[in-house]
Known about the structure:
The complex is a heterotrimer of chains A (621), B (109) and C (483). Chain A has 621 residues and is mainly α. Chain A has 24 helices and 2 strands. With 483 residues, chain C is mainly α. In chain C, a hairpin with a 4-residue loop joins strand 1 and strand 2.
Amino acid sequence: MPVLPLVGAIINAALRRSLSGNTSGGFATLMILGSFVVSLLLFMGHDPAAHPVKIVKFFDWINVGGMEIPFAFQIDALSLTMMLIVTGVGSLIHLYSVGYMHDDKRVATFFAMLNLFTFAMLLLVMGANYLITFIGWEGVGLCSYLLIGFWYTNTEFNYAARKAFVMNRIGDVGVVLGMCLLFNLFGTLNYVDIMDRAGSFGTGHGMIVGATLLLFVGAMGKSAQIPLFTWLPDAMAGPTPVSALIHAATMVTAGIFLIVRSSVLFELAPFTKDIILYIGTATALLAASIGLFQNDIKKVLAYSTVSQLGYMFAALGLGAYSAGMFHVTTHAFFKALLFLGAGSVIHALGGEQDIRKMGGLKGVTKITFITFLIGTIAISGLPPLSGFFSKDAILAHAFQDNKVVYGLLLFGAVLTAFYMFRLLFLTFYGTYRGTAHPHESPLVITVPLMVLAALSVVGGMLNVPHIFGGDEGMKTYLATAAEGILSERLGLSHTTEWILMGVSTVLVILTIVYAYGRFVKKTTLDGDPAQLFGLKKLIANKWKLDELYAMLFEKPYGWISAHFFSIGEEKVMVPLMTGVGNMTLRAGKVISRLQTGNTSFYVFGMVAGILVFLLITLFVN
Amino acid sequence: MEPVISAIQVVPLEHYVFLSFALFSIGVTGVLFRRNTIILIMCLEIMFNSVNLLLAAFSAYHSDPSGQVFVFFIMLVAAAEVTVGLAILVMMKRNVDSVDVNQLNRLKW
Amino acid sequence: MQVLILLLIPFVTALLLAVFRPNAAAKTIALVSTFLTLGVALWLWKGFGGIEATYFDHVWIAEWGLNFKLGFDGTGLLMVILTAVIFPFIIATGYKQDLRQPALVNALLLFSQSFMLGVFTAQNAFLFYIFYELSVVPIFFLLLYWGGEGRRMITMRFFIYTLLGGLALLFGIAYLVVHEPTHSADFTALANVALDGNTQTWLFWALFLAFAIKLPIFPFHSWQPETYTMAPLQGTMVLSAVMLKMGIYGTLKFIFPIVPEGAAFWQNTVIWLSVIGAIYAGIIAFRQKDFKRLVAYSSLSHVGILTAGLFAWNTYGISGSLYQTFAHAVLMMAMFYIVGAVQQRSGTSEISAMGGLKLKTPRLAALFLLVLGNAIALPLTQSFIGEWLMFNGLWQLDGGAWMAFGAVSTIVLGAIYMLYVYQRIMLGPDKGHPDMQDADTTDHLFLVPLIAITLILGIYPAPILDLVNGPVQLMINAFPILH
Lengths: 621, 109, 483
């Protein structure tokens, strides 16, 4: 099934010169739709109760000594969920791209890369062992690099792409080492085998904790958590569909996926879970704070993604795996929607991305506005949209386990609502502040928007909690795949749950009202970061983290590299080696002084030599 | 033969050895330190003679004729060698216009 | 007998080329010769039974224990195939280069191929040594007369330094032969020499120094960057793709069977030296100004990991190392070819002078990118499998976690410098370069098979792994090192 996008990628790449935008785009979209159909069929044929897990093995990939790693796929609830998301949302984004990338010269290459990315992502979620997943893991990293740097004549974009890849790779070190450890411990990398045998290790076993930590390092890189998150905002350099697909819906969720896959292991490592919780919460807050002051429409969404990912990780840290996955699903819907909507706005304004130059678009781009509004409401967590259910599930778990974290996450939700509605108001309300001629986008763009909006509205139905009379469908479904979910318990009383939901909803509504007052009534525009003071200035400058990283890592690395070469190599190593040669030469010069050419000297030498021999024979014998 | 041998053996063997050694050293010193090639060849002859003397002495003292036979060989070889040496001397005079052995210093590349 | 033919084909061709100097047809003749050799090698592979085999034995000089004994086991066959596969590409590079006196150049290349094949098939330590030293000679001449700037000094340094190692090796062999009951230098006989621990400690370095310099590993590496940079493209390819494999092969043949205790004593040191060297080279590669030099340092980095994996002395380590030698050879060929291609088109190999070449040569950029995947050990390429196996091998040692960490960190360093150089050369705005020719058929003919090998073996590594598995297991069981 992943073959379909791969075929699409190869054909598009090979014929890229001759295909027009529509043909290649149509072809690519068809490939993804095909995969989606197959996923649906698999989904419907999958019986979670009777056969929770199905392994399809193709051939023995690596077979050395005791290491047997088959090239196999695992079809279970978790992989099916991800497959549906990837192919479903993916096909919508492909369709969208046909319209969005219409004028670009290299559009066929674009679709080739998009298809390749989908292929890699499918490998990632369908792998039956860690190594196959890793193929996809690195593959999406590569495609991310290619796609972020798609407009390669811009040096800054290239730099952003490289930064993304390198940060991913740093995380990959963790994954590789984690896999080494797991293999060493279990003798296999197959998910089913590891999950079966993991039970024999007690909780808190050093190796398991180590492996889970290492895997989390990988997740940190791929899913943009502190400290490896600065690549994601920069990745907005890529075309908007790329941001939607990769950085909202799929690649960044790979880290979450990995952890949920290994939920059995993580359940045995409470230490790691705590760390995940803290980092996730911190990331959620930090990113939300930065998002408050960003003026680029895509950057706001980028930081929002990082923040939402933080929520998902917090959920995982609390052991609420299905809540995390639920949020992944709903986030895929509304974040893709938001990004595509942003793309529609950018397209409508002919490339403008600064929200200070927007405004008043709700009359012009009606469909975009309505869908964007829906997405914003969803992400703010207002009932009865999907975001409400997923976010509240996480908040409920947080309240149960750690009140401080709950408070922080609630605050983060408030911030989320604030910056998202700020974005909405500044972009669509008021009067138009820009210079372009806005127009609504074509159907090819708006149809995916509408579909995603619909999904954002009804997506909550997937996992309705008990107090509403639902049966937590997704949680039960996923539990068949990841046994760690079984230990996910929400033991709050119904009253508490109602109160929590009420509190969050009220706070969000208050925030919206405040934002409305600030941005619509008074049309306050946060000016340049240079004009702000104190803490606001720091936050607006992204907490100067990029500068910090440059100072701590990039500059020293370049310095070390140059100096290793100039000092290490040229002054130390090379002389060591030339020393050998020089010694030989010098020894030769000294000895060559014996050759005087003077005959009597040679006679003298002969006599001396004979004397020496005589003496030796005399004294040795 | 007895009276001859006993007459020879009046002089102790060590005397012959010392004399031979002295002659040889003189010869070696001459070869090393004299510049004139003709003198050098004469010193070579001194060395030869010292060895001959020693061989003859030992031969007489131990009544072994092979020593004196060997002396004949040496004299034969010495004669041939002197011939060659004098030929080189003549060539040297012709080419370098001197019999100073230090003038032969072109054995360096 | 076929093994002898294997060696003779390139040797005779080289001789004919050197004597008759058919300059016009030289490259074609050489290419045909290498294909013949490849054919023989593949035939040998087909008929290979999986166990060690001796094909030709002739007593040469009995007093020195020197027998002209040729044969191979799985690892030797792997090296032979590697050489046979790589050399057609090396000769083919000559079509794009315009070196003077092509007949001589190709003759030298073929001589070196013949001698290197001799190295890989020699079953007698002395014979190994002879071929080992001989193989440097054609390269010496190639570098001296066709090299770039500073070729005199650099070639002399390279030569003397390599010979120094060879001297140590000779000394070690002599020592062993003297102590060996039958005074034979056959590998099988040498393995039976009883040596005590102390002797093995210094004998290890006597034997290993030559290979440490050849590979090279830190700190014996200084000759490598300058020599690679200065050498003509085909010379660099021979050096990096094939010659350094002699170091790996030599280590396998000499060190572990003959001085296992010495190896056990020095194991950690050598692994750490290799890993540190790999990291060191990876860091330096980043700020290099010359493209060719950067690739040289990247080769150095990869070789460090190779050696570390080898010295892990367990199934994964050695299998990975051997598998990776093949991957490394393919990678170096492709990388240096691209270096040459870029250099020809832009007239320089200074990175700062290039930029935005993708606009002019998009196909070449695409090929570059594919090769890059192999360089950074992207999964589905050969390098990934080799490196993954080696990482595992390292991890399983005592204290191996840190070694593995050091080794794995090179994937980050590799990504950094590789993407950096790709970006600086290919991407970026138009710098006003004159129009260049994009990758043409020859370029594709060269690079596409290499890329294909990379991907195919990345997805289906079984052929090579199976070849190597048997002898690796034998070696480990026969000569276990305590770790």
